Amino acid sequence: MAEFIPPAKPMIGEEEIAAVTAVMRSGMVAQGPEVAAFEEEFSPVAGGAECIAVNSGTSALHLGLIAAGIGRGDEVIVPSFTFAATANSVVIAGGTPVFVDIDPVSFCMDPVAAEAAITPRTKAIMPVHLYGHPADVVSLKKIADRHGILLLEDAAQAHGASLAGRAVGSFGAFGAFSFYPTKNMTSGEGGIVSTGDPQLARTVRLLRNQGMEQRYANELAGFNARMTDIHAAIGRVQLTKLEGWTQQRRRNAAALDEGLQGVVVPAVADGAVHVYHQYTVRVPGLDRDRFMQALREEWKVGSGVYYPIPNHRLPSLKQFAPGLDLPQTEAAAAEVFSLPVHPSLSQADIERVIEAVNAVAKAGA
Ligand SMILES: *Cc1c(COP(=O)(O)O)cnc(C)c1O
């Protein structure tokens, strides 16, 4: 049989290598003109918001939270069904993550559950645009406004996704994007904070660089969370390819939607543009792990589970969720897995994924 089809694959071309080489030859490799250009060029992806580049998506969340005023004793409502960085960033900013359940169709934060979790200590609601599908930030923004709290967006998986014609990362007080290699585009490591609030933007810029705007005139205690020009140069090249890759992801997803039988394919909410960071299916009633094993061993089709253990049950975070029961989160964690959808798949790869899934589903793994 043909080659193994990996569940994800970063696409790094000669252009990225040449861009890195040019920065290295310039002799100036730390944060500089490449970072400034990357911030400008990424802004349209975040709906025209001001962008501040940092060294990871986690740093984007962390610095954004501090700049938004989240600190000790402040509750931030987050989903549990996400990568741990979402809640970790709340904890390292000094706040308290309050986990709520998801909508079982979109896998994103359930607005009804979010509103029910608001207390006098709640400062913000931070949904995740999970798998590249926008969370219901239209409803969540209304809820946040009604209660006088902030909406914040973890957009780490959703470069280019939108809801009601508006880009994710432009709904909340800030959005946080990631450029980790498996994301829809990469800078090696890196992240961006997007915001429409000039004061928040300035605070993130200070926090990223020891609290300094003028050298040695430190205004607050900050971090070194700067992006290097080497990483920004990679990101700038990748950004020129993002739109084409997103279209390819969407075409691959459409072919999977059309061809797959016997599994629950991802739904797209009204008015949503899904950018398919992951193409995530459910196999209720079947053994998910055996299903994935059969795909790998019999068909050389890779797949992955995002995320098998909900955040509120992780040893690092369970202290924030004593006795909490999130049934939709638990069901998703037990049933979902993600099939290859990345832009480097060939037509034959897509056909093999479809044939494999349909055969395994029919055999009743
Ligand atoms: C990847 C990711 C992050 C963190 O980004 P890094 O760049 O890896 O620090 C945060 N939230 C979600 C949902 C992610 O998928």
Can you put this structure into words, describing what you see?
This protein has 365 residues and is of the alpha/beta class. It folds into two domains: 224 residues, 3-Layer(aba) Sandwich (Aspartate Aminotransferase, domain 2), CATH 3.40.640; 122 residues, Alpha-Beta Complex (Aspartate Aminotransferase, domain 1), CATH 3.90.1150. 38% of the residues lie in helices and 13% in strands. It is built from eleven helices and twelve strands. The strands form three sheets. A seven-stranded mixed β-sheet has the order 1-9-8-5-4-2-3, sandwiched between helices. α1 packs antiparallel against α8, α2 runs parallel beside α8 and α8 packs across α11. The two termini are 21 Å apart. The mean pLDDT is 97.
C-alpha-based Rg, rounded: 20 Å
User: N-to-C terminal Cα separation, in Å?
Assistant: 21 Å
Largest sheet: 7 strands, mixed
Q: Supply the CATH class of the largest domain.
A: Alpha Beta
CATH homology superfamily name of the largest domain: Type I PLP-dependent aspartate aminotransferase-like (Major domain)
Strand arrangement in the largest pleated sheet? 1-9-8-5-4-2-3
> Please, how many domains?
2
Give me the strand/helix succession.
HHEHEHEHEHEEEEEHHEEHHEH
List the helices and strands and how they pair.
Blueprint: H1 14-26, H2 33-42, E1 50-54, H3 57-67, E2 75-79, H4 85-92, E3 96-100, H5 111-116, E4 122-125, H6 137-147, E5 150-154, E6 162-163, E7 166-167, E8 174-178, E9 191-195, H7 198-208, H8 229-259, E10 272-273, E11 279-282, H9 288-299, H10 327-335, E12 336-339, H11 347-363
Bound molecules: pyridoxal-5'-phosphate.
Residues 56-58, 82-83, 85-86, 128, 154, 156-157, 178, 180, 191 line the site of pyridoxal-5'-phosphate.
